Amino acid sequence: MYSTYYGPQSGLAGADATAQGSSWMTSFMGLSSIFAALGLVSQSYVGSSLKLLVLGSLIETGRRFFQWLIERFRIQYSLTAQFNEGDPAHEWIVLFITQERVWKRSREFVVTAKNSERKWAVNTDSDPSRVGSAEYVPTYQAPQLFKWGGYWVEIKRGNDARGSVVANGVSQTGRIYLTIYTLDMTVLSRLVEEAKKRYVEVNRPHVVIHLIDSRRFNSSQPWNSVKHKIRRPLSSIILLPGLLDSLVQDAEEFLKSEDWYIGAGIPHRRGYLLHGPPGTGKTSTIYALAGALNLEIYSLSLASNNVDDSFLQQAASSIPKNGIFLIEDIDCAFPSRADEEDEPMEPMTVMRGNAMMARARAPRAITLSGLLNVIDGVGSEEGKLFFATTNYIDRLDAALLRPGRIDRKIEYALSTDEQTRALFVKFFPEARFPQFAHATETEKRNADAEKNPTLTALATEFSAAIPPREFSTAELQGYLQGHKMHPVEAARGAGAGAWVEAERAERAAREVREEERRAKARMRAQQMGGQGYMPPQMAGAGLGGSGMNPVPMSSTAATPTFKSMRTGNVAAAAPVMT
Ligand SMILES: Nc1ncnc2c1ncn2[C@@H]1O[C@H](COP(=O)(O)OP(=O)(O)OP(=O)(O)O)[C@@H](O)[C@H]1O
């Protein structure tokens, strides 16, 4: 049924409107309550955030304050020492922390194949006799704390930005900072002394040689590489009788007489020049002497690209007391005129004019005056032993050789009969060859000396087969090494005699080749001369090999060849100390 009912209909419309109004109101109310609720929520959120912010700030401030306090404490109640790589003390401390097993908490290691360069690797193997093929060296990048002698010590590594280079991703040069939590300076010096003592102990079987590695060149830390050589006994050096003893005695006496030098007003230093043909034992003598006297060697090559006067000065003055400063082949820095003429420039360079030619022969970085200053300048005293070696003493300037710079000149010569014999005996000791041991008088009478020779007899035969003053000890050593298990073959028959003939033939061929090279070089020099070129040392009116060198060089003497040295006055002279 359907009916029309207006009143209520209109009433209904009104009610609708009312309902609409109330729903709007409701919505408004709802919204506002949401907003209110949201407001409340956001109020509480902001509040909490604020609270968190305040709390966080407080914690951070507290943390910083605590850090500051710790830093204050560290500064006030600790000592920090810095050890720079290249300095010997750095070596001591690295060994010390390795022995203290500080590396145990290390997380970073440099791993390299074993070689003679110092690494102070950690020994992780429980069996110390087992030798691994690689070295594991902790980098100490993160600070490490350990206890020593009742004190807390912190060790940290820092890098020297100027000098460090990155090899295999690991910085090679750097510093070690050692912080001890005490105010007592004596603790630091006790620790350093202890470190040095251990270092000396560990190195007893070795000779320590400090070198300059140009790959890690750092002018403020010149000695940046350390090598260890097994100590060589003095008895293994075969020289003329008395020579080695007098050298060792001289050096020992020098080291003991510091007070005398001070009293006499003489700088406490001693210079030695070892000169003579290659392979006669000059370098071996210095290493054996360093081992016998417990001295470390600081060895420098003047031929290195990076070495100039100021670097030389820096290197020499950073050698500690009682160190050996060694310059090998000292003549190399100042080649004689003959050598300069042997190495003319390339023809292309000549074509471009004299100005370019003059520049092409750039002045050498080391000057003679620079070298002289280093040998007798500030920092060269303090108990330093200066050793230089050369194959060509005639090339050296008289200024370099004067007493005070070079106090002893020791001449080495090619092997004498006596040395050749001694070398054979050293090579074939009776302990290793008992079958050739000394025979008793009865045995000697009954034995057939030809069939059953003793080592002494073989040594005499060997020295008779080798002409005296013709071969260096190194050459003879090379020959004997080829027969190290066969003393009879080494001493007799085709062995020694055939070797002498082969060596002579090879030398003659080498000299022919050398003469050809020189002739070619002279021709090139003449061609240059024809185009107006004059070698700078000639233009420089008698200046030495270094263009910057204000001191005249005595390089006009003809360069001796080793043939002339063997047959001439050098060969005739016995090794002497002057
Ligand atoms: N007099 C010697 N006694 C023992 N060994 C020697 C002697 N001379 C040379 N040797 C041996 O020869 C090798 C080279 O010797 P060393 O380097 O000492 O000679 P050098 O005179 O310094 O040579 P260079 O002038 O070329 O530097 C070494 O292995 C060394 O053992």
From TrEMBL:
One Gene Ontology MF term? ATP binding
* Cleavable signal peptide: none
Spell out the subcellular localization from the entry.
Mitochondrion inner membrane
Q: Identify its membrane topology class.
A: Single-pass membrane protein
Main location (coarse class): mitochondrion
**In what residue span(s) does the BCS1 N-terminal domain sit?**
53-237
The protein's UniProt keywords, in alphabetical order, are: ATP-binding, Hydrolase, Membrane, Mitochondrion, Mitochondrion inner membrane, Nucleotide-binding, Transmembrane, Transmembrane helix
GO cellular component assignments: mitochondrial inner membrane
Gene3D superfamilies (alphabetical) = P-loop containing nucleotide triphosphate hydrolases
Catalytic activity, as annotated: ATP + H2O = ADP + phosphate + H(+)
Residue stretches making up the AAA+ ATPase domain: 268-416
* PANTHER family (UniProt xref): BCS1 AAA-TYPE ATPASE
Q: Which family does it belong to?
A: Belongs to the AAA ATPase family. BCS1 subfamily.
Q: What is this protein called?
A: P-loop containing nucleoside triphosphate hydrolase protein
Q: Which organism's genome codes for this protein?
A: Mycena pura
